[in-house]
Amino acid sequence: MNKTLLGFIKKELIQALRDPRMKYILFAAPIVEMTLFGVAISNEVKNIRLAAFFGANDYLVRDIYEHAIGGGWFIPARASGETAQDPFELVRSGDADAVLVPPEGGFTRALGRGDAQLQILVNATNVTQAQSVESYMKAIVAQTLADDLGLTPRPPPIKFDVRVLFNPSLDTAIFMVPGVMTMLMVLTTLILANIGIVREKEMGTFEMLISAPVSKSEVIFGKTLPYVLIGMTNLPLLLAIAMLVFHVPLRGSILALIAATVAFVCTTVAMGTLISTYCQNQQQASMASFLFMFPAIMFSGLIFPIENMPAAVQWLSFIDPLAHYLSLLRNIMLKGGGLQASAWHIGVLLILAAVSAAASFRRFRTTLS
Amino acid sequence: MSEPISISVAGVKKSFRAFQALHGVSAEFEAGRMHGIIGPEGSGKTTLLRIVLGLMRPDEGSISYREGGRDISFADLRPKISYMPQTQSLYPDLSVDEHLEFFRDLYGIAPPDYKRKREELLEVARLAEFVRRPAGQLSGGMYKKLGLICALLRSPRVMILDEPTTGVDPISRRELWTLLYRLLDEHILILATTAYMDEAERCSKVHLFEAGLLLASGEPRTLLQEQKARSFDELFLRRAALGGP
Q: What is the second-level CATH architecture of the domain A48-149?
């Protein structure tokens, strides 16, 4: 390889690996964040505070309540049982997320009369939680009635034979961890590449570099390749945590995973370089990186499924490198996809990288004015 | 033997938005001499150097480069110029040795040449015992000397220095000039700006700048006699008292 380029890479790596804070950002932070996010980020709604009102004879409501608490999704709200309180007030004050309100005279007796209505008050300020409460409660009520009274609802004419593939226990970690990996990879590569270039401009060393007899491509590759290397070192770290701590499988080919990661890291570094051509100092660079990352995470399909988005904005996901890498990770790790199955997303990533790199080349100035 | 290089600047104008930094400057920088570009802060010295180096384009005017009487393009000249910017241009976290190695790779210097040059420059600059110290922990004078020896690592034909002695104590200033004089033996073209008027007398030719205009060029002694001043300090102070040009 070109000697100038090697010298550049050496210098960049020395600088990145010398600073203890930098070492933390590069290696410790991804590990800590991966572990924390993997544990904390979950789509599953848990710990819903449930209150129920039931009289001494209203054993059905009591059983439903106890089933609910025993099931693991609900926890008891502070006020419950026979204490007469306004159920509406309970939700409004935030003491309960959901309240079971039986009809006048008790649910058990009403069921005997044949017009059983059990009211559930749900706090829908958190829509995801509210939707879960409804589906959980339906299941719990049906179960309780079947256990206590032998009442089974008439079976529907069509039976679904549902088989959950690739994540049979519907473990959210398995679904979320590739997303967290994607976020951490983009964080280190995009911000570091961007700041690495802008810092030279801010410190005045850039003037020395561009006045030296080196070509534009030597400066650009010299400043970016080290961050591709550093980004790649994050892969084994993050993969180890995903597999050892969260038991996320790696069913597909490791070769495909490496190819996908190289393509992704090249894209984010190229985009970071492009952003750096618009920034004059490190504050602007951090700000611009965040302005890029928020929509990039939103449109990646990590939090909201891309299919839910209106067609008019779905194209944003197409140019979002995070969306492609996330699909690749899920495909390779969970579904066992190989290189062939990954080719489309890797191809798109490489096109995105090439377009960003070309734009950076055009914008990268070797003059000061 | 390489031919001497000279640079001439003709009618160069440059403005930054409303501020006009250079109002049509023409100057001759002949080969083999130490040219001092002297003038108070904000007189357009740095802008002129950056234009000569191709780091900025002039709004009007032209710059021509000649090698032994033959016109050459800037692209031909570029590998032969060394530049030391005025702003801090070293990496505070890299040591003296790491800087030299980085510039060796940047300039593509062969290992035997590098070894010889490195020892020679470290000795002249008296930095040999500080090779492991990060640039951020060097004193002002040592920092400037490191910048200079990085630029000299390459045996340039043209050396452009922007305020090499600003913020440097008198002893280090003298050392820096000594380093520059050694270069002059090799018949290279040196352009150095300075705001220290006493340094003007060390140059073989001075170009006096004020508010984007070239006031006069010539040998220091002759210039002072023409202007009827005993020193450049006196000359500029007198002009300042008169309210500028």
A: 3-Layer(aba) Sandwich (3.40)
From chain A, the residues in CB contact with B91 under 8 A are: 11, 15, 203, 205
* Element at B83 (helix H, strand E): strand B81-84
**3 state SS of A166:** coil
Instruction: Give tens-digit pLDDT for B115-163.
Output: 998 998 898 888 899 999 999 999 888 888 898 888 888 878 898 999 8
Set of chain A residues whose Cβ sits within 8 Å of the Cβ of B83: 207-208, 211-212
What order of strands is seen across the sheet that includes strand B81-84?
Answer: B81-84, B158-161, B189-194, B34-38, B205-210, B213-218
Whole-number Å distance between alpha carbons of A3 and B61: 37
Domain ranges of chain A: 3-41+169-363, 48-149
Q: Which of B53, B88, B102 sits opposite A7 (nearest CB)?
A: B102
- The pTM assigned to this predicted structure is 0.80
What DSSP letter does each residue of A27-60 carry, written as one string?
Answer: IIHHHHHHHHHHHH--SS---EEEEEB--TT-HH
Note the pLDDT tens digit of each residue in A348-368: 999 999 999 999 999 887 776
Amino acid occupying residue A285? A
Contact map slice: A 28-67 vs B, CB within 8 A: none
Tens-digit pLDDT profile for residues B210-228: 888 888 888 888 888 888 8
Q: In chain B, what residues touch A208 (CB-CB under 8 Å)?
A: 83-85, 89-90
* CA of A213 vs chain B CAs: smallest distance (Å): 5
**Nearest residue, CB atoms, A14 vs list B57, B81, B98:** B98
ipTM of the complex: 0.78
Tell me which chain B residues have a C-beta less than 8 angstroms from the C-beta of A4.
105-106, 108
Asked which of A37-51, B29-43, B90-104 is least confident by mean pLDDT, the reply is A37-51
| Mean per-residue pLDDT of chain A | 86
Looking from the CA of B212 toward its CB, the CA atoms found within 13 Å total: 12
Label the pairing between strands B205-210 and B34-38.
parallel
